Amino acid sequence: MSDGAQGAGGADDASMDYYLIFAAPEDRDRGAPPLGILVEEFVLCADYTAAGIDSVEWSAATGAWRGSATTSRDIRTDALPRSRVIPVSRHDASDAYQACGGGELPREAEIRTLSRERQSLLAAAPLDLGTTGSRRYRVLFAGEPRDLGSLRSALRLEPVEDPADPLARVVGTATATAAGHDFTWELRRIGPGIAWCLDVTVRLGTGPEAPIGALLHHHRQAIRGQCLIPVTIERFA
Q1: Most buried of 7, 25, 37, 81, CB within 10 angstroms?
Q2: Distance of alpha carbon 148 from alpha carbon 146, whole angstroms
Q3: Phi, psi of 64 (to 5 degrees)
Q4: CA-to-CA distance for 103 and 75, rounded, in angstroms?
Q5: pTM for the structure as a whole
Q6: Among candidates 45, 200, 190, 188, which has minimal Cα distance to 123?
Q7: What is the C-alpha separation between 57 and 237, in angstroms, rounded?
Q8: Dihedral over alpha carbons 234, 78, 56, 47 (to 10 degrees)
Q9: Rg of the chain's alpha carbons, rounded to an integer?
Q10: Rounded Cα gap, residues 16 and 224, in angstroms
Q11: Burial tier of 72 (Cβ tally within 10 Å: 0-12, 13-18, 19+)
């Protein structure tokens, strides 16, 4: 289920996504305590596409954990619930959990044993575009970035179109090589105020495929850090 990244708090405390849930959008920026914490984990296939999202929610009012497929779905499809959540790191979620009286946030191995619910993601087989030796991924996001300039910097994007233009589609592109694989990625706006996506093309080398998953994970987290919410990871070829 995890995509293999590691972080502070132990090797198993890295692959989940954390969100603070507030009563109202304005509470996010005025220091009000959250109503709860949503914890999610993308269920990945062998090729790093997404088959589903496991989620569980903790309530500060009850101190209890419960399955949260409805909350997970709502923040991706409805702007109002999305406006009441903030993507955070595990460290920040742990601080909020403790401040709200929850004590020490369970490790991710323990969170996986709680009352999780799965939101299935339908994925079609990749199209045969005659591009043997390459893959094309799309990571879809809901919402609007908090700071597009910081996001472009985090993804090391070179400008393609004027990012200030609300009609601009491709706001930047970048390339890299890892384990013999050549990567190209670009950040796209899918209509003004509708959604965003990260398109990644991989020209496969002879090395292990783990760097593909690592790059998709890193970029997904970088974009999530600017308040965009990942919806799915698809593959087109």
Answers
A1: 37
A2: 6
A3: -115, 155
A4: 26
A5: 0.88
A6: 45
A7: 35
A8: 0
A9: 18
A10: 12
A11: buried
What does the alpha-carbon distance between residue 165 and residue 82 come to, in Å, rounded to a whole number? 24
Q: Is 52 helix (H, G, I), strand (E, B) or coil?
A: strand
Identify the sign of the CA torsion 151, 153, 157, 161: positive
- Name the residue with tokens 């993804």: 155
Residue recorded with tokens 């989620």: 55
- Which residue(s) pair with 82 in the sheet? none
Strand, coil or helix: 168: coil
Six token digits for residue 24? 């109202």
Q: Is 101 in a helix, a strand, or coil?
A: coil
CA 6, 76, 187, 87 dihedral sign is: negative
Token couple for 109:
């191995």
CA distance linking residue 199 with residue 187, whole number of Å = 6
Distance linking the first and last C-alpha atoms of the chain? 22
Q: Give yes or no for a contact between 75 and 85, defined as CB atoms under 8 angstroms apart.
A: yes
Beta bridge partners of 58: 37, 65
Rounded to whole angstroms, the Cα distance separating 142 from 119 reads 16
Task: Print the SS3 string covering 124-171.
Answer: CCCCCCCCCCEEEEEEEEECCCCCHHHHHHHCCCECCCCCCCCCCCEE
Question: What is the mean pLDDT of each successive set of 10 residues along the chain, which is 237 residues long?
Answer: 34 75 92 95 94 96 95 95 96 97 96 89 66 88 93 93 74 94 95 88 94 96 96 93
